[in-house]
Amino acid sequence: MKIxxxxxxxxxxxxxxxxxxxxxxxxxxxxxxxxxxxxxxxFPGADYLAAIARLGADVLYIVTGLxxxxxxxxxxxxxxxLFRKAAxxxxxxxxxxxxxGTNDKQxxxxxxxxxxxxxxxxxxxxxxxxxxxFNFGVGKIKE
Length: 143
Known about the structure:
By secondary structure, this protein is mainly alpha-helical. Helices cover 52% and strands 0% of the residues.
């Protein structure tokens, strides 16, 4: 089984815009060690990974190939922190607000057509976010 830690490590280094010597120095190793890590000849230790993580490298991705959910921008991180602290009704309101604010093309294409007699009872309020038309009558007029 081939483990592509070296390839992912190089990808993260390049994404962050560092040379091999500079990235190695941040991780506390020489250029040759960095080169061997990226070639897959050696594997980095936890101290190296911790050092490059502080710089913004996605260590979960380097090790497993799965991107970290923790790689959030400052505002996203603040949003998640506040959301986790919020009461359940507040969370529901936030989710509803975010869902209403998205431009979902699928929602715009929804259409319902009923053939035959249809009745409806509504308790509470209904909010229509798009154009709605109601046609009432008794079917087509026969000639």
